Amino acid sequence: MTPSDLPTPAPGSWADEAIAWYDQNARDLPWRTPGISAWGVLISEVMLQQTPVVRVLPAWHSWMTRWPTPAALAQDPPAEAIRMWGRLGYPRRAMRLHQCAVALVERHDGEVPDDLDQLLALPGIGTYTARAVATFAYGQRHPVVDTNVRRVVSRAVEGLPDAGPTTTNADLVATAELLPEEPARAARASIAFMELGALICTARSPKCPDCPFESVCAWRRSGAPAPAGPTRRPQRYAGTDRQVRGLLLEVLRHATGPVPRQRLDVVWADDVQRARALAGLVEDGLVEPLGSDADRFVLAGDGSRTDVQQL
């Protein structure tokens, strides 16, 4: 019998193996601590989007210390959320968290709901985040599918070298079929699959000898073929509008009052790119122009503060 002729494991055994591995190898992360609030889980999930755990850890601790509840964040202007976001990247996430906190206070008495539809209705909360909060905070049975999970399922179960660029309904169905029926154990399996993808079944250098699925992985059994298409390269950052936006926000975050346009002009030499980046920040609601000539700028929400003084 060749490796490709070996029988495929039953759906439940995938979860059993993943959970057993997770129980021995899971990272000790604060948002996984028993009893952590759903708000803490929600913040972690938003911060972890496109951002490594090592960068999220100090930011998460700072946010939870300053804003342990949605009501605490909602009481502050959105500018404070942008400041606290620091250099995590994609600062619109900070705005969305602030909007979400306001909505939680207005609609749910400051509590994060456990209903999936109510989570999906919150500003800035998409399909993945809503399922993740319902699963990891409330122990419900939902397929929580990120890039790591899609890669594990694609390789181990389907025998493909990698998953597609975005999550599809087929990915949700394939993952749901691997989950135990009992909700709490299904939630445990979901985080176990995710951890396997993050630590073992990585995109570029999978640690197959350490994987609980090594002997039954369909991808390994088929010879671990490389992806047929071009390899996805990390997004370039240096010289992009994202870098310029970050530099402009850095000045505004540390300012104690409105920042004159001339001070922002020295941040980046390319006038066209700098103007485009600044206009994008204004359009995204992260920055507000002041004055009839829009010659001064503040973070969103700072323009209405009575204690703001021109530099």
Topology summary:
Layout (H helix, E strand, L loop, with lengths): L10 H15 L12 H10 L5 H14 L3 H5 L3 H8 L6 H17 L7 H5 L6 H10 L10 H10 L12 H8 L6 H17 L18 H4 L19 H14 L4 E2 H5 L5 H13 L3 E4 L5 E4 L12
Antiparallel strand pairs: 1-3, 2-3
If you had to describe this structure to a student in words, what would you say it looks like?
This protein is mainly alpha-helical and 311 residues long. The protein has two domains: 216 residues, Orthogonal Bundle (Endonuclease III, domain 1), CATH 1.10.340.30; 64 residues, Winged helix-like DNA-binding domain superfamily/Winged helix DNA-binding domain (Arc Repressor Mutant, subunit A, Orthogonal Bundle). Helices cover 50% and strands 3% of the residues. It contains 15 helices and three strands. A three-stranded antiparallel β-sheet has the order 1-3-2. The radius of gyration is 22 Å and the shape is globular.
